[in-house]
C-alpha cells in the first residue's frame, strides 16, 4: 500500500482529529464529554520530534532496529479539560460506559477512550541521542492551538 492510499482508508482522513468522536455531542452541548470516569493514559509526542527521531534512526540505527517514540504520558481527561479551557467551554463531563458505547461504538469507547497505551523512548534517547524539543502537550494546547 502506498502512503497516499492511507488517506482513503476509514479512520485515516487527514483532517480527522483524535477527539472527533466527541464532536457530535459536544457541538450540541458546547462541552466535551468523556467516557466513564477512567483516567486512561497515552504516550504523546510532537510530530516535529517524531521527524527528528526518524532522521536519526535512518542515519544511525542498525538495520532491523525498533524504537518507540514518546515525550511524556497524558490522560485524555486532562487533555480534554485543557481543550475545554482553551476554547472557553464548560468543564468536561463523564458519561456512563453504556452511553459511550451507544454514541461512539464499542471500539472507541473501550479501546480509544477507555484504555492505556504507554511506551518509552529510553532506547531512542540512549542509542541515538534523541532529545525531543517540544515538551508539554498542555503548553501546545494552551498557547498554540487555534481558537
What are the defining features of this structure?
Rossmann fold; 10% strand; 147 residues; 42% helix; single chain; two-stranded parallel sheet; globular; disordered N terminus; 4 strands; two-stranded antiparallel sheet
Question: How would you describe what is shown here?
Answer:
This protein has 147 residues and is mainly alpha-helical. Helix 3 runs parallel beside helix 7 (137-144) and helix 4 packs across helix 5. The chain has seven helices and four strands. The longest helix is centred in the middle third of the chain and has 14 residues, at 47-60. The radius of gyration is 17 Å and the shape is globular. 42% of the residues lie in helices and 10% in strands. It has a single domain, classed as Rossmann fold (3-Layer(aba) Sandwich). The model is unreliable at 1-28 (pLDDT under 50). The strands form two sheets. Strands 1-4 form a two-stranded parallel ribbon. A two-stranded antiparallel sheet has the order 2-3.
